[in-house]
Amino acid sequence: MQTFVVYPEVKEKAPVIVLIHEIFGLSDWFKLQADELAAKGFIVVAPDLLSGSGPDGGGTDSLGGQDKVTAAVGKLPQDQVTADLNAVADYGKKLPAANGKLAVAGFCWGGGKSFSFATVRPDLSAAFVFYGTPPPAAAMAAINAPVFGFYGEMDARVDATIPQATSDMKAAGKFYEPVTYKGAGHGFMRAGQTPPPDATATPQQAEMYAANKKAYEEGFARLVKELKARTAPGAKKMSRVLTPTGPRAKKPGVAEMVCHDATMAGM
């Protein structure tokens, strides 16, 4: 399994975040999120959960387009996803630069998997769910970590799950803090980083862009704040590697990037 690993450039050991991709797989945008979190002082391990799903055992990049990627993500067995996330988490915690603290965060499809991972991973310090759906109520009793939710006001499908999740988590005696960002849509973390609309945009499009951008900025700040509160990292710069991890590891492949240098090596 190929895993994108991003290191902060710090002298002290750092916490590990397992970052779970959207239904779009290990995309360039997703790698950017890993970079941005590492720049705040975290080791980020971001697996390509499509590793082995493509031709010749390839992952996201080998599948030949977004439609095939989303279809493949939708077919991933839950048991396989859980096993892969556990392998990545174990790998991250054993890194010499890691301080033993572990958190998980995910977006969209990955947001739901982040919530679910909290039900099977007792050593998590926190779980962060970006517009993802909750696990079954019966599974919530096993959650040890606080769960933080990030939702867009204009995302009726996912938002409809929040009241029941709140009730179920309360009944299980667990911490769940959902925040809904005004005017934002589903996927606001991605949409909030796109270029602003041009002069041909409608007022509604301009309003949605502004709401998504604000939600992204507030959501990212909240994520970093809560991570620091539970894992106490520091630093701004980072380096990153793409490396095989876990039971489905293939041939070693390494891609290094330092401080957002656009050159890749060792592919």
What do these coordinates show?
It is built from eight helices and nine strands. The protein has helices at residues 28-38, 66-74, 78-93, 109-117, 156-159, 162-171, 188-191, 203-231, and strands spanning 2-8, 14-20, 43-47, 98-107, 126-130, 147-152, 176-181, 238-244, 257-258. Strand 4 (98-107), helix 4 (109-117) and strand 5 form a beta-alpha-beta unit. Residues 233-240 and 250-267 have low confidence and may be disordered.
Q: Assign a percent range to the helix content.
A: 25-40%
Main beta sheet strand tally, sense and closure: 9 strands, mixed
> What are the low-pLDDT stretches, counting only 5+ consecutive residues below 50?
233-240, 250-267
Shape assignment: globular
Q: Ends: how far apart?
A: 15 Å
Q: Output the radius of gyration.
A: 18 Å
Overall mean confidence score, pLDDT: 88
Category from helices, strands and their pairing: alpha/beta
Total beta strands: 9
Could you tell me the strand content as a percent range? 15-25%
> From N to C, what is the helix and strand string?
EEHEHHEHEEHHEHHEE
Number of helices: 8
